[in-house]
Structures are given as C-alpha cells and as structure tokens.
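> forwarded from #structure-qc
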C-alpha cells in the first residue's frame, strides 16, 4: 500500500483526525507548495547542480536556483554533489540531504558547497560490505581490526589525498541500536562515508517495503541517490525489497527508483565512469536486473555489491560487478569468508575515468592476494591448491617446481580447504554454526610429485602487478 492511500484510509477510520506526530514527513506539506532554494558556494549560485526528492530530478539555473513540487511519497530532498566540491558530512557520515519532515517549505531550502582545493580527477575510495555487527563483541572486532586497517591506508595515502568510503549494506545485523557504533567507526577512519541499505538494516515489523526503511532513512537519509567526484558519477541504489513478512525479502529494484535513475543519468555525459552500489548482487540475485542494465547501455559501469559473504568478480558486456568479500567475513566467526576470502574490503583508485583496484585483507599487506594448500594424493603425488580471491578472466597464473616453470595452474570450482576445515558441519564455526563453506571458481590446482622441495606461484592481475608466494614441501 502506498503512503497516500494509507493516509486516506486512516483518515476515514479516525474521523479525519490524525496527529502530526504520527504522520510521515511528506504528508505535512500542502500538495501545491513548491520546494525551492539555491545551491551556493562562497555566497554565489552554482549552476547545473542536480537536486532531487527521489522522484523529481532538476538542475539549478545560472543563479543556482531550483524549484519543484515535492512528490507525495518523497521523504527527503538531496543534492548530487558536483565534482570539484567537498562532501558534506557529519563526523564522516554523509549529510547530502534534508529530511522533508524537518523543513518548512515556506522558506527556501538551500545547499552550501565548499570547493576543493585541488583537482579531484584522481581520488580513491573504499568499499565496505557487511560490517554486520550484532553485539558488543562484533563491535569490538570491527573497532580493533577493521578500523585500524583503514586508518593505516588513509595515513599511507598521504595528506591531501581525496578519499571516501561506501558501505554497501548490512551496517548492522538487525540491531539498530548499533548504528551509533558504526558511526564511531566511520569517525575514527577519518574519511567521509556514504551508506547503502542492506536487508539487515531494515525495520522488519513495519508492514511494507515502503515503511521498512524508516529507521535507516531517519539515520542515514534516502536509500537511493547520487554524487560526483572527478570524472565519476556514483549512484547508490536500494535493491532490497521487503515482502511484508518478518525477514522475507528479495532482490528487486522498484520502478520509482528506475525512473529516478533514468532522469538522473540524463544529466550525466556518456563518457563518465559510473560506480553503482547495491547491497544484493545484481548479476544473479536481482530479479529485474535486465531493467537496470538497459538504463546503463553504452556506459562504462562498475557495480559494487556485498550480501553474500564471499567474493567474486562478474563481467557482463559493459558492466563489471565486484561482489565483495565482507568486513565481518563469515559473521565474525573467524578470519575468512565462506569461500576462503579473508575478512576485508575493496580499495579503488581513480585516475580520470580509469579505475584500478585490489582486495585488502584485514591485517595484511596489499600483496596478500592468495593462499596455498598442499595435501597428499598418493605415495607419488601431492595436490597443490591456490585460492586467488580477487581473480577475474584477465588474471594469469604460473607455477614452478624446484625452479622449473610448469606453466599455468588449472582453474576449478570447489571448496576452500581452510573454509572446509573451520566451517563444515553443524557444530562449526562457533558460535554461529549456520556459516558453511561455499563453492567458488577462484580456486586453482596442480598435481606435484612428492619429490618436490619447493613450489613457487605467481599470479598477475589485470593491471600487470605480480603477486608471488613460495611453499616449501
């Protein structure tokens, strides 16, 4: 049921009297009242800045002015921060929006921009997937392991480097009381963070998909929006559809969001790089992904997702989807995800419209990109297995036995040996035994003789960077 119909029915049931404290914010406004204001920087209007309420999408005129009639179901008005300007935030949490319930539309709703002191064509960003804290112990690990790891990278990037983060959902694990702890983590990391809604961030008892986002929106603002930095247009979308029953949801992008994205992209040149973030993977778990792909035709797009607690890279025509290993791994039960990918996050570097990246394992160096395992087959041979978690089709592998090259490793689908030994079975891992090892295709193997003394493996990523490891037999 949409909110407008709900209000009409509620009015009938209550004799037309509804107190303001129980109304959604948008219903406080007169239908014909325009939302208007200016986008300013150093007291001057900024033209061609995109402003939206999630339904209407307009740009400012030459004096920085905008106006439109807010949609009856809108909850916020937000700015798509243009390139060349700082991200408005509160202790790191993005505040690019104003909630309509807090506004008096008789007054102008202005946005003030602070210009950057350097060109932003080069910048970096981190993708955090599923911190998913549920109790104090989870928070402790996030604060003591994940946050210091990011702090090291921020420090290593150097003063003046433009950095931001995006958390692609499941900020918490149903327990909204832990949102402030995530906020503290963001503040400690010292860079602005944008938030994406995950299924565990929803209100599961509010009755409908439209109202399941209430707590998130009150805390972090709209569930879909965009912003810009350099030659990149970033889009955050909500593809978690609540089905109206406790913890039932699916991956689906509602039509109002698709309509909004189509309008938003009309103001984005085709040669811009698009970074589109969702919680649920698009390539295999979003039912109407073809509708989204159609809007992205002819553009260079990287989709950032989480949700699965394993890591995979999927290429489809003009779209590269990075389905990230998670900050919490297998729900804070150990040091790895269900496919053996270490707990961690994505690190991305932008130069113009060129994007490069690596997966950062928490507590490890950037060179930690694979793990090897050797096991007995029979009296004359052993099995070498290598997990290269950020592998994609452009990567290459090579291995040596006692200094002699044996060519490339054989890729196969299977279970990571460490994930199997620590998660397989009803009693493992403790205390969250539901985590189970998941099959993955970023495994490689070779048979080696028992007479071998040393194995060397070299993996070369799509950017030509080589990662090597040796294994003594």
């Amino acid at each position: 049921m949409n909110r407008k119909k709900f209000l009409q029915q509620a009015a009938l049931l209550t004799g037309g009297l509804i107190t303001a404290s129980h109304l959604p914010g948008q219903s406080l406004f007169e239908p014909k009242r325009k939302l208007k204001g200016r986008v300013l920087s150093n007291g001057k209007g900024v033209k061609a800045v995109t402003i939206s309420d999630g339904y209407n999408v307009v740009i400012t005129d030459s004096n920085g002015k905008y106006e439109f009639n807010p949609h009856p179901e809108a909850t916020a008005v937000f700015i798509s921060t243009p390139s060349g300007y700082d991200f408005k935030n509160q202790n790191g949490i993005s505040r690019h929006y104003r909630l309509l319930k807090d506004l008096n539309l008789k007054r102008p709703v202005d946005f003030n921009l602070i210009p950057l002191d350097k060109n932003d064509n080069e910048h970096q960003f981190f993708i955090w997937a599923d911190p998913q804290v549920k109790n104090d112990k989870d928070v402790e690990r996030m604060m003591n392991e994940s946050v210091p790891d990011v702090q090291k990278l921020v420090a290593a990037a150097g003063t003046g480097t433009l950095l931001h983060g995006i958390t692609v959902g499941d900020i918490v694990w149903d327990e909204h009381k832990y949102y402030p702890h995530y906020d503290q983590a963001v503040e400690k990391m010292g860079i602005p963070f944008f938030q994406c809604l995950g299924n565990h961030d929803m209100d599961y008892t509010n009755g409908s998909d439209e109202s399941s986002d209430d707590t998130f929106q009150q805390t972090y603002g709209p569930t879909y929006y965009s912003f810009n930095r350099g030659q990149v247009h970033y889009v955050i979308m909500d593809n978690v559809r609540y089905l109206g029953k406790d913890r039932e949801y699916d991956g689906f992008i509602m039509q109002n969001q698709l309509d909004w994205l189509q309008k938003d992209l009309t103001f984005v040149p085709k040669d811009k790089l698009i970074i589109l973030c969702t919680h649920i993977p698009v390539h295999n778990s979003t039912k109407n992904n073809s509708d989204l792909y159609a809007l992205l035709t002819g553009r260079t797009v990287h989709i950032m997702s989480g949700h699965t607690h394993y890591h995979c890279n999927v290429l489809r025509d003009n779209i590269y989807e990075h389905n990230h290993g998670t900050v919490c791994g297998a729900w804070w039960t150990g040091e790895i995800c269900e496919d053996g990918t270490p707990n961690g996050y994505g690190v991305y570097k932008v130069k113009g419209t060129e994007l490069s990246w690596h997966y950062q394992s928490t507590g490890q160096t950037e060179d930690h990109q694979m793990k090897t395992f050797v096991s007995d087959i029979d009296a004359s041979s052993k099995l070498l297995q290598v997990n290269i978690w950020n592998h994609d089709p452009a990567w290459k592998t090579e291995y040596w036995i006692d200094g002699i090259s044996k060519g490339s490793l054989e890729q196969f689908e299977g279970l990571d040996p460490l994930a199997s030994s620590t998660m397989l079975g009803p009693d493992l891992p403790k205390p969250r035994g539901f985590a189970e090892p998941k099959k993955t295709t970023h495994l490689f193997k070779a048979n080696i003789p028992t007479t071998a003394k040393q194995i060397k493996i070299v993996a070369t990523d799509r950017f030509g960077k080589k990662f090597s490891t040796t294994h003594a037999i």
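QC bot note: Confidence is low (pLDDT under 50) at residues 1-29. The radius of gyration is 24 Å.
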